[in-house]
Amino acid sequence: MKTVFYTPNSEIQPIERSIRRLERDLLRMGALVEQSFRLSHQALFNGDLMAAEQIPRLDKKIDRFYRQIELDCTAIIIRQRPKEKDLRCLSAFMQLVRDLERIGDYAQDLAEIAIKLFPYPQHSSLPEIAVMSQHAQAMLANCLVALADLDETSGQRMKQLDDAVDNAYERLYQTFAHQENFPGVIEPILLLTLAIRCLERMADHATNIAQRVTYIVTGQRN
């Protein structure tokens, strides 16, 4: 993993050690969010309710990281008087950690949707929603790699995946909204509409993370 401000020819300053520690914590939190997303996918598309039951425990760990990282960023800002480049990094971390926490929350929402959908027959749109989920998971993986490597060039790949997720959302929403003569109760359609909304928002938060990495490296906001 690259570090944010690595200075090979000078002694590492306390604030640089603090920022390196924050990077490691962010990536640990990101790994938990990835795991939670994978489990929600298993629950929703494979009917794996045991996977769904694991997510609340992971979400508690994610929330602990979220609170601790925010506190650590605030403490560094108050006590260590960061320079402009360090302050830019810390402010990006404080926004980035919220994006990760929200993706974790949406993963838990998907698990709850999976549990409610379990008694119903599988809808014909489920394979397309599964592809949408895979794209959103790829976006999360890409933005975490970008964070680990401080790679500000990941935007084009992220845009392609985000466009695929957005297009799938619009297509599926129209399918659900205009379905006629639907037999039985409407709950499965409502739940699937909520599921695609969760996935669309997860992709947006992953895009935010990639943009915050670009800001850390370049100082430019997209």
From TrEMBL:
GO biological process: intracellular phosphate ion homeostasis; negative regulation of phosphate metabolic process; phosphate ion transport
Span of domain PhoU: 26-113, 131-213
Cellular compartments annotated: Cytoplasm
InterPro entries in alphabetical order: PhoU, PhoU-like_sf, PhoU_dom
Gene Ontology CC terms, in alphabetical order: cytoplasm
Keywords of the record: Cytoplasm, Phosphate transport, Transport
Cytoplasm as UniProt keyword: yes
Pfam families: PhoU
Family named by the database record: Belongs to the PhoU family.
Alphabetized PANTHER family for the sequence: PHOSPHATE-SPECIFIC TRANSPORT SYSTEM ACCESSORY PROTEIN PHOU
Function: Plays a role in the regulation of phosphate uptake.
Assembly and oligomerization: Homodimer.
Protein name: Phosphate-specific transport system accessory protein PhoU
Species of the source: Cuspidothrix issatschenkoi CHARLIE-1
